[in-house]
Every structure is written in C-alpha cells, then in structure tokens.
Amino acid sequence: MKRIDTADRAIDDSGGYVATVADRLKALHHDACLAARPDARALGARLGEWALTDDSDRKWFLHARMRYADVLGDEGLAAFRERVAPEWDALPSLPPTRTPFGRSWDSRRFRVTFLREGLARAGGSVDELVEVLSRDLSSPHQFERIAEALEQAGREREALAWLERGNRAYAPAGDPGVRSRLLAAYLRDGQVEDALELAARAHAQAPSVRTYAELRAAAEAAGEWPERREEALERLRRADRYGGRSSAVRAQLAEADLDGAWADATVGGCDDATWLELADASREHRPDDAARVYGRLLEDALEIADDRHYARVVDLLARWRDTLRLHGRARELDLQVAAIRELYARRPRLLKRLDGAGFV
Questions:
Q1: Structural contact between residues 142 and 134, judged by C-beta atoms closer than 8 angstroms
Q2: Whole-model pTM above 0.70?
Q3: Where exactly are the structural domains of the chain?
Q4: What does the pLDDT look like over 99-128, one tens digit per residue?
Q5: What is the pLDDT of residues 10-41, one digit of tens each?
Q6: Are 199 and 217 in contact (CB under 8 A)?
Q7: d(CA 147, CA 163)
C-alpha cells in the first residue's frame, strides 16, 4: 500500500489498472486479518490510527469500520471508536457561513468527521447522529441532512425545526434546497399559510422558475393561485434581463399553458434552449410553430462547420421530422434536406451524418 502511494505521484492511472490492484490489496489485507485473527482491540486501534492519518488518494482504511466488522467484533469496534474519539472532541464547531464556496477544504477534518459519522450511524442513535452532523453547519446541506435523519426516524417536527433554523441562517435569500424541503414539510403538516408566506417571499426576492413552481404549489394548497399567478409571472418577466422571457416561458410550459408560453416567447423572445423546449412541447398542437423554430435553429447550426454543430443539425432535423410524422406530413421535410445537401455539398462529414440518420 505504501509503495502504491509513492508510485501514485508519478503514475497516470486514467486506465484504472492501479486502482484495480489497490482494490485487490484492500481485500488481501482484510482476508489476512480474517485468517490470522489478531487481537481485536489492537487491530481496532491500529485501523483507527491508519484511517485518521492516511492522507493518500487511495484512502485505504477510511471504510475500515465496515470492511473489518467481521474481524473486529464489539471489542475491536470499541477500540476503533476510542481512537477516533479524542480527534473528534478536538474539532471545533463550525457555524453557518455566507462565503460563496463555504469553508475551505480540510482533509483531516473530513476524515475525522467521516469516521465519527459512520460510528454514529452504526450505533443506531439518531440523537448521536444529529449531534455529529450539527458539529459542522457551514453548509446549508447539513441542515437538510439533519432533517433527513430525523424524518427517517419519524421525528418530523424536529426535522421541521432544523429546516426553519437553516432557512433563518441563510436569510434573506435562503438556500433553495433547504427552502424546498421546508415548504414540503409545511404542506405535509398543514401549515399552508407558513408555506405560502415562505414561497411568496422567496419569489419576490429572487424570482426564478423554481420559486414560481414553489409559490404555485403553496398558493394552490391555499386556494389562492388564480389571483396570484399573473403577478408571479410578471416578476419572472422583469427578472429575465438577458434571455428575453425565457423564465416565464419555461414556467408556463411546466403548467402546460402552451398559448401563454408562446405569447411570452413571441413578445419578449427567449434563449435557444427555451425555444427548443417550446417547440418540442408544441409538436402535437402547434406543429407549424414548432417547425419554424426548428428551421431557424437549423440555420444557426449550419453556419459553423464542425462535428458538434453537425450533430445538432441532425438532431434538429430528427425533431422536425418527428413533428411532421405526427400529422402525416413527413414528406414535407424532403425539400429542406435536399437544399441542405446541395448547399453544403462540400462538407462530406455533414453529408455522412445525414446519411447515417436516414436523411437521404
């Protein structure tokens, strides 16, 4: 194992050969312990030491608690826990942080926390697990993890309290994951007004397709969506500075409001990805509108002669063809394909892709 760690500094193992050898070594060491049956407490202490001090990329003993369970038994596991305990006790608590990328990476803290969390999960105590997880609240995701552990134990009200705490910790904007989970908990518990207030505040502060959907769910539960919908859409329109009305279009597509989506796209425009989403959704009821979108995007793709854009050309033609086939009009595309073949006759790679996709 040590020799592989040394060799790793000079090896490109993109093919995975050394990784396979490393996995064999892990299995061999476990099998050797199983055959030799060393003193369980001594082995547990050694495994704990190795797991805590191994900073290599292989992380040889990070999962030792699980891999060696059949060798350690209760006594060995106790020794493993005793070795980890002082390192864990020395770790300071981390409060919520508002820096863009959270706290800086600390490999030792990661190892100690990983081992301690594994021991808590093995012990089966939810309170112990929550205590471990709450030692580091520097990421909104930690509040979600705590809530999940409590929910799985049937302690939904405690989970909700942790989600509320996480939402407050990252106010005013809040964290999308925490907020979404908190909204679901409010609606589950019948706290509709709390859900509506939370969703409305989030959509007012940072309108997005996600906050629109959250507000819709809460307002529908409160029976207030019809009167709130237009204002919610208007917030999306005003917030979309660079993509026209992309957000408003996508929000209405999610509601299956095809006419509303087309109205916003026509008046304000949207980005190419949203135009494509709109065209795909319109295949059955507005095929001619969909065809016009495919045609325009096709012209843009043909302007650049490389394999990535050739693949897009074929993809757009296939979408266009599928749309026409729904209405028994597939032959209408033949003239478009013939024109492309004639105009770009000196692009053999494009022609080859067209042949392979059946556009002959």
A1: yes
A2: yes
A3: 1-90, 282-360
A4: 655 567 889 999 999 999 999 998 899 999
A5: 888 888 899 999 999 999 999 999 999 999 99
A6: yes
A7: 7
